[in-house]
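Appendix C reproduces, verbatim, an entry submitted by the partner laboratory led by Prof. M.T., so that reviewers can inspect both the input and the predicted structure.
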Amino acid sequence: MSRRQFRGRQELGARLRRLRLEAGLTGTDLAEVLGWAQSKVSRIETGRQSTTTGDVRAWAAAVQAPPGLVEDLIADLRSLRVEHAAWRRQLRAGHAPRQRTLIALEAAARLDRTFQPLFIPGLLQTAEYARYVLTAS
């Protein structure tokens, strides 16, 4: 899973969490209403577990979310699924094609701005420096 996908799951989870809090429910309360383990509620809210359309609909019903908001949440979930499927398809051939694409983008760049207070950015590292950093950690 890419970082972007994980952030997407975290954002969806945060929205669900806000709905739960606005309804005045604890994670334990919501889990009890839904017949789920409390850990499932927690994992969904933190983005560590993917969710289903049925889960989102059940959650929304339990917190009495407006119908328009429910459809918006489901649209976000579908978008995350499409992105995840595209990512998996892309990686079926391994990481090499993706890396070649990134190398081409990097080579075409005219300017590279980074702020890295602890390490020299990767493109500027010598082999010896990279080796030292990797063995030190």
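The domain at 3-91 is CATH 1.10.260.40 (434 Repressor (Amino-terminal Domain)). Additional entries are available on request from the coordinating office.
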